[in-house]
Amino acid sequence: MTNPILKRVAVRKYTSEKVDSEAVDHMIAAFQAAPCGMHETDVMQLTVVEDDQLLQQIERATDNACYDAPLLFVINVKKDRRFGQRDASCAAENIMIEATSLDLGSIYTMSGATGLNAVPELQEQISSPGYETCVIVAVGHSAEFPTEDRSHRYHVIRK
């Protein structure tokens, strides 16, 4: 299977190897290509975290919800906006699919976002005023390679 949509799985274990800058740029481009409700491009912003000290602070605040990944895409949305959470999920999926196409592992975490929102001094470092963290996508070189048959996970009705 070579299609990154079908190949993508949740990775919870990463090597310590940093993700190269060109790959990060590709994932940022994937974020930028995400759809947005009603063309409201001002409801979402991205913070790319690569700094080791900030990564450690985020791991502590999120109770290790980012699995010590060497790269985080923190997607923040304006508070109380109608499409922010939906847009953030679409953008996260774009990042994860692009990561898979680059042979990187990733995982989508909302529990980590909740942890960050509970620490105002950390939230100030990763988002603009009026925004809150909605989704974190942890990315890195996989130290595990999960395999599972996901071809029949959900009930499908065809009419």
In short:
The chain is of the alpha+beta class and 159 residues long.
Give structural attributes.
single chain; 159 residues; alpha+beta; four-stranded antiparallel beta sheet; 4 strands; 36% helix
State the end-to-end distance.
28 Å
What is the typical, i.e. mean, pLDDT?
Answer: 92
Number of distinct beta strands: 4
Helix content: 25-40%
Shape: globular
Order of strands, main sheet, comes to 1-2-4-3
Low-pLDDT stretches: none
Query: Please, how many helices?
Result: 6
Secondary-structure class: alpha+beta
The major sheet is characterized as: 4 strands, antiparallel
Percent range for β-strand residues: 15-25%
What is the oligomeric state here?
A: single chain
Radius of gyration (CA) equals 16 Å
**Helix and strand string, N-terminal first?**
HHEHEHEHHE
